[in-house]
Amino acid sequence: MMNSSKVHVLVLPYPAQGHINPMLQFCKRLVAKGVKTTFVNSVFISKSIPADPKSAINFETISDGHDEGGYAAAESPGAYLEKLATFGSKTLADLIRKLEDEGEPVQAVIYDSFLPWALDVAKQFGLVTAAFFTQTCAVNSIYYHVYHGLLPVPLSHSPISLPGLPLLQPKETPSFVYLPDSYPAFLHMLVNQFSNVDQADWVILNNFHKLEEDAVNWMAKLWRVITVGPTVPSIYLDKRLEDDIGYGINLFKPDSSLCLNWLNSQPKDSVVYVSFGSWTEIDVEQVEEIASALKESGFKFLWVVRAFEKEKLPSKFAEETSEKGLVVTWSPQLEVLAHESVACFVTHCGFNSVLEALSLGVPVVAAPQWTDQPTNAKFLADIWGVGVKADADERGIVRRETLVSCIRDIMEGEKGKQIKENAIEWKALAKEAIDDGGSSDKNIDEFVAGLAGQKA
Ligand code: UDX
């Protein structure tokens, strides 16, 4: 371990579960290398999860302009992002000053690449800056090419060829790119990640080198790039950092003992786990199709249906299927994926879920919904070989027969055996990357040494 205790780093995620998890995990790795870290949540998020006083990480807040309701209280995505930038910039500057006044000055800011204004604030204070990209290098490359006008949006119908990436059909790009009118404010935010990244001292990627070797090598020609993943709590990678048994901040309360007791009573490799992450809203018709598929396929299942979506379930579904399955509103996902009874993960392909499935060797049925998920699904099925893709119909719904066939492919087909073998290989590579002396571990050392050098 390096002696870098004098370096104080501020880590600022976009305020959402899928961004807090990987950045907090990275923070824990920095702490393990002797760096002092301050993790910054929005006021709203910090109210829902009080900071752990025993944590080695210091917690502080900035305002997103919606201290009472967060994102849900905003009029529109565009209005939220605008306020986040305005209130965020001001309160981030206040926080940097406050830490200075308290004798805890910050030397570097690691900001979520969704928040390029944070780089501008850090530069005003002459701080070292690192952009942390939570999504895949492939997805980043697509937005980079859009930003520079090298990939015109709307896309034509032809496949897309970009350096370091496989040929992609338009529908294998992020939904904000192939449907640019769907969420223009989010498209703008994602493209805008590249507006000032040239000024960042470091670009940190939430993956590991072997996972996207060609794309990472391409990106490394542009910036000082390091891969630091998989950002999965170390206990699941057999690398035990102190107290590192979960991500640490849960915006929703998991039904942990219910899920784990139920899984404990199921045979090995018998359960299909279904979850669509923290942010995706599922169409009622899609919920019905999943419900029918789980009934028809006949396998045991554990299904996360978020509290606000429970009313979309067919009436009496839980009672009628109580012998076969369990429906919960939030699961301890890492423990579920690590459980020996779980054999298949039907996922929306949010990148944290993807990294977790790869790191724990669990084959997937990829049912992408929006944002980066279509690209992640393409990689899961066709490049990394750890899953099958459940294609949606022309209305964007994955039908029950497609889901049943995909689940059977994983649970009992010949194809499923090969996929399982691939998943086990990726699990070993993920562990290797983060093990002492592995590619990500060395990159984190390089980063910490660089910070110490830049400070000196
Ligand atoms: C969002 C985007 O949707 C995603 O596409 C992007 O890559 C990251 O940000 P989200 O939809 O929440 O994230 O999905 P995901 O990236 O999979 O993150 C969800 C996190 O919540 C995972 O770490 C998962 O372990 C956790 N989770 C999910 C639980 O702990 N319990 C659950 O029941 C469901």
What does this structure look like?
This protein has two domains: 8-134 and 196-240 and 435-455, Glycogen Phosphorylase B (Rossmann fold, 3-Layer(aba) Sandwich); 256-430, Rossmann fold (3-Layer(aba) Sandwich), CATH 3.40.50.2000. 42% of the residues lie in helices and 13% in strands. The chain has helices at 17-32, 43-48, 77-101, 117-124, 137-147, 175-178, 184-191, 213-219, 256-264, 284-297, 317-320, 333-338, 351-360, 373-383, 400-412, 414-434, 439-455, and strands at 8-12, 36-42, 58-62, 108-112, 128-133, 202-205, 225-227, 271-275, 300-304, 325-328, 342-347, 364-366, 387-389. α10 (284-297) crosses α15. The two termini are 18 Å apart. Residues 17-19, 21, 134-135, 254, 275, 277-280, 304, 330-331, 333-334, 350-353, 356, 371-373 line the site of uridine-5'-diphosphate-xylopyranose (UDX). This is Glycosyltransferase.
Care to give the gist of this entry?
The chain is α/β, with parallel strands linked by helices and 456 residues long.
The CATH class of the largest domain is identified as: Alpha Beta
Q: Mean of the pLDDT scores?
A: 94
The CATH homologous superfamily of the largest domain corresponds to Glycogen Phosphorylase B
Spatial order of the strands forming the largest sheet: 3-2-1-4-5-6-7
Characterize the main sheet.
7 strands, parallel
- Global geometry: globular
The N- and C-terminal alpha carbons lie at a distance of 18 Å
Spans of at least 5 consecutive residues with low confidence: none
Briefly note the CATH topology name of the largest domain: Rossmann fold
Question: In total, how many beta strands?
Answer: 13
CATH architecture of the largest domain: 3-Layer(aba) Sandwich
Helix-strand string: EHEHEHEHEHHHEHEHEHEHEHEHEHEHHH
Question: What does the radius of gyration come to?
Answer: 21 Å
Instruction: Please identify the structural class as seen in this structure.
Output: alpha/beta
> How much of the polypeptide forms β-strand, as a percent range?
5-15%
Which ligands appear in the coordinates? uridine-5'-diphosphate-xylopyranose
Number of domains: 2
Enzyme class: transferase
Protein name: Glycosyltransferase
Organism: Coffea arabica
Pfam families: Glyco_transf_N, UDPGT
